[in-house]
Amino acid sequence: MSMDLGTDTSAVDVKSATPTLEARGLVKTFGHVVGLAGVDLQLYPGEVLAIIGDNGAGKSTLIGCLSGALAPDEGEILVDGVRVDFKSPLDARRAGIETVFQNLAVAPALDIASNLYLGRETRRKGLLGRLLRLLDARGMRDDARQHLQALGIATIQDMSQKVETLSGGQRQAVAVARAARFGSKVIILDEPTAALGVRESGQVLHLIKQLRSRQLPVILVSHNMPQVFEVADRIFIQRLGRCAGVITPRSHSMEEAVAIMTGAVPGGQVAEGPTVNGQNQ
Asked: At what angle do helices 168-182 and 198-213 cross, to 10 degrees?
């Protein structure tokens, strides 16, 4: 069986656009273990780029480098065409890249608003804020409510509700909403529906579509092929530390994607440039 990994010309061609986030020749080794072996990746404005691959393919290593959690041994990362050097996740956050890892990193004992502003709390205006350093709890609750409503999250109404009382899908929504609130460039979601049921997974997928509608590019790491093909504009296939191909839901089927991912079919040439249409049809 032969597959063409060329560009899908049925979508809008934006090859002339500058990638919001780009990786060039990323190499990362752990002793004798090769995590990344010269990976190139481009994420363009307003697209959902899914990253798929078998266990040990290097997906976590790639996300670690893009999010500042790991430093690549070779290669470079660019944001809006400008090279960046992330020493920590804080550096990536300052560059506008927010990552939601599988463990969510929420504080269960705190309320929703406090989680949304965790590490970025705002103080009251005037002397109470400057001298006494009092937090603007009401302002953060109001902003959190408006932000969740803007993202279409209707299942959460009370911003003073503790996160530990929420369902798994609602906790995931809080974590994604926090990333969207402060991620001005890129949102990276690592297996956001892995522990969720069908209904809650649907809510998260809807949230991803909402982010795209706001022209906020998203990197989605997932093993769930139906979900990937539902929301992704392009699919980056990682295998044995390398990119095996970049396809689209229009150009390839799920079976073909799995065949490339597992090595049953050679990946061949990587697709040239993006094919972003902002919506899946």
From this structure: 10
DSSP string for residues in 40-106: EEEE-TT-EEEEE--TTSSHHHHHHHHHTSS--SEEEEEETTEEE--SSHHHHHHTTEEEE-TTTT-
User: What string of pLDDT tens digits covers the 281 residues of the chain?
Assistant: 444 444 343 343 445 589 999 999 999 999 999 999 999 999 999 999 999 999 999 999 999 999 999 999 999 999 999 999 999 999 999 999 999 887 767 888 999 999 988 888 888 888 777 777 888 888 989 988 888 888 878 778 889 899 999 888 888 888 888 888 887 899 999 988 887 788 888 888 988 998 999 889 999 999 999 999 999 999 999 999 999 999 999 999 999 999 999 988 876 444 444 444 444 43
Q: Which of 63, 5, 73 is nearest to 37 (CA)?
A: 73
Coil, strand or helix at 123: strand
DSSP state, residue 13: B
How many beta carbons lie within 10 A of that of residue 80, not counting itself? 14
Tell me where in the chain the CATH 3.40.50.300 domain(s) lie: 1-96+185-276
Q: What's the count of helices (H) and strands (E) in the chain, helices before strands?
A: 9, 10
Cβ neighbours of residue 162 closer than 8 Å, sequence gap 6 or more: 108, 109, 110, 111, 112
| Angle of helix 168-182 versus helix 137-150 axis, rounded to 10 | 100
Q: Would you identify the CATH topology of the domain 1-96+185-276? A: Rossmann fold (3.40.50)
